[in-house]
From TrEMBL:
Region feature Disordered, mapped onto this chain: 1-27, 118-167
One GO BP annotation of this record: protein secretion
Biased segments, Low complexity type: 129-145
Keyword Transport: no
Pfam families xref list: Bac_export_2
InterPro entries: T3SS_substrate_exporter, T3SS_substrate_exporter_C
Keyword list, A-Z: Cell projection, Cilium, Flagellum
Lineage: Bacteria, Pseudomonadati, Pseudomonadota, Betaproteobacteria, Burkholderiales
Family: Belongs to the type III secretion exporter family.
Keyword Iron-sulfur: no
Gene3D superfamilies: secretion proteins EscU
Cellular component terms per the entry's GO annotation: plasma membrane
Protein name: Flagellar protein
């Protein structure tokens, strides 16, 4: 799964305050893309950050994802927080819910992904049978399937606080 963020260079909104906004790692007005790639393997526990970058590095992450048909989710807030996670490190517990909702949606959309990744932790019964939806609320921004192999979708609900990463 890849997550992407394109900065608009516009004024800072209240939701961008603190360490996760456009001013956190990039100069004001910077419109470079930021991307984070995650890997989830059931046997290893929480997903890990396997690639991240800005500008041409982010563009390369997204290009490779598109070529491989890997799911891409657009979320400024989540990408901002995941950019703070070290490479090869596990996603912190504060972000489990946001990442799990995205993984659950991917499972519902593509049974091949569900079969390849195995059981989805945190889902009642431990797995999502092919063609079945886990007992999780639908993500409004993710409710419409797309014909493209790479989906660029609206952001999920933003995390409560950027300070949750500092635990």
């Amino acid at each position: 799964m890849n997550l992407r963020n394109r900065h608009t260079g516009g004024p800072q909104s209240p939701g961008q305050a603190g360490a996760i906004g456009k001013d956190a790692n990039l100069p004001a007005g910077d419109s470079r893309t930021r991307a984070v790639a995650l890997r989830y393997e059931h046997a290893r526990g929480a997903p890990s950050v396997v690639a991240k970058g800005t500008g041409i590095v982010a563009d390369e992450i997204l290009r490779r994802a598109e070529e491989a048909g890997v799911f891409v989710h657009k979320s400024r807030e989540l990408v901002g927080m995941l950019m703070q996670v070290d490479l090869d490190a596990r996603v912190p517990p504060a972000l489990y819910t946001a990442v799990a909702e995205i993984l659950a949606w991917v499972y519902r959309q593509d049974e091949r992904v569900a079969q390849r990744l195995g059981p989805l932790q945190g889902v009642p019964g431990g797995s999502v049978p092919p063609g079945a939806a886990p007992n999780l609320p639908a993500l409004p921004s993710l409710s419409k399937p797309t014909s493209k192999p790479v989906s660029k979708l609206a952001p999920t609900a933003k995390p409560k606080s950027p300070n949750q990463l500092k635990r």
